[in-house]
Specification:
The protein is 6% helix and 27% strand. The protein is mostly beta strands. The protein has one domain (46-327). A four-stranded antiparallel sheet has the order 2-3-4-5, with no helix packed on it. A four-stranded antiparallel sheet has the order 6-7-8-9, with no helix packed on it. The N and C termini lie far apart (51 Å).
Length: 349
């Protein structure tokens, strides 16, 4: 496979490539016509100069909270408050240094009564009005290829989020080394949402975590270089890879809102909240368990600009700039319920 071959090539070159710095000599241009939208819609630029923006959420007055992910860039994760009428913006929240995982991502926010909820790599938290952070759900399987995705509010009053998978096949392979997280978290692997019995298939890779000339064998739902055997049972967990999870606004009663077990769904999203859930299905190349990998058909939300949920893939944003879409000739942006109080900028004490 090409991605595996590139990982083998990257192994010896990594120390060199990490020393290379490429700087843009001038500001990039922004042309709304480069964005494809459905017939009857138009695009306009709202704000520019953003660093890896991946998600937008709104307060009741129409202010936009733009999440900058911090994923594999030198600019730290943060949330900007943007006035969509003028494009003016200010830093609303800086993710503390000790919470920044450069291989992970701050994936999005939700404003709800009177907290700013946010997802960061493997944790769902909320920002209190006094600027302190309260972790609601931790130890989520978000340190791999796909992180813990942005939170949304369900019609039942619970907080929902899509939980990405660590890999695309439930097998940690050499290709994951190219994403760089595998060296930082060599014991990380996917977790099924229910108990499964493995068929014992193992896959050979060059040892990208050690001597590249050596060969290791890896099975499903185990760390890189770990073999499995027929009949081996992998215990399921509520905090499963490739699932939609939920909890009460205070973090209690955490459970599964949906799970594609055991194969998972690579980048599930629950936003915008509709009866359908969008996802990017994983490869079935590693099908090695009973029951078989889920054959559920992926469904995409009927709402426009549904984000995929992976760092750098959520909408609406286009590589460093924020856009607004609407029926041609329409003015303004969507606004939340007027009963929701406007958030204040957190203190920096």
């Amino acid at each position: 496979m090409i991605d595996t071959a590139l990982a083998y090539l990257y192994k010896p070159l990594a120390p060199i490539t990490k020393r290379i710095r490429i700087e843009r000599k001038k500001d990039r241009s922004y042309d709304p016509s480069h964005v494809l939208v459905p017939e009857g819609f138009s695009v306009e630029v709202v704000a520019t100069g953003l660093n890896a923006p991946v998600h937008c959420s709104f307060d009741d007055e129409g202010y936009v909270y733009v999440t900058e992910s911090g994923h594999k860039i030198e600019s730290k994760p943060r949330v900007l408050k943007v006035d969509p009428r003028t494009g003016e913006h200010e830093v609303f929240f800086d993710l503390p240094e000790d919470r920044w995982d450069i291989y992970g991502a701050l994936t999005g926010t939700l404003w709800h009564d009177p907290y700013l909820y946010f997802s960061n790599t493997d944790t769902v938290s909320r920002l209190r009005p006094d600027g302190t952070i309260e972790d609601l759900v931790t130890d989520l399987p978000g340190r791999g290829d796909h992180q813990t995705n942005y939170p949304v509010l369900g019609p039942d009053g619970k907080i929902y989020w899509g939980q990405g998978t660590g890999t695309n096949t439930a097998v940690v392979g050499a290709d994951n080394f190219a994403y760089e997280w595998m060296k930082a978290y060599p014991d990380f692997h996917d977790r099924p949402g229910q108990d499964i019995v493995l068929a014992g298939h193992n896959y050979e890779f060059q040892n990208v975590l050690g001597n590249i000339t050596e060969t290791v064998r890896t099975g499903g739902y185990v760390p890189f270089g770990t073999e499995t055997h027929p009949g081996q049972v992998i215990k399921g967990t509520v905090k499963a890879s490739g699932s939609v999870l939920r909890c009460n606004p205070d973090g209690t009663a955490m459970g599964q809102g949906w799970n594609w077990s055991p194969g998972g769904c690579a980048t599930p999203t629950a936003s915008p909240f509709t009866p359908t859930v969008g996802c990017s299905p994983p490869s079935t190349a590693s099908t090695s368990a009973t029951p078989a990998t889920s054959s559920a058909t992926s469904r995409t939300s009927t709402r426009s600009w549904k984000g995929r949920g992976t760092a750098g893939r959520t909408s609406p944003r286009v590589s460093g700039w924020m856009i607004r879409t609407g029926a041609r000739g329409a003015v303004g942006v969507n606004r939340c319920s007027p009963s929701t109080p406007t958030p204040t900028r957190p203190s920096r004490s």
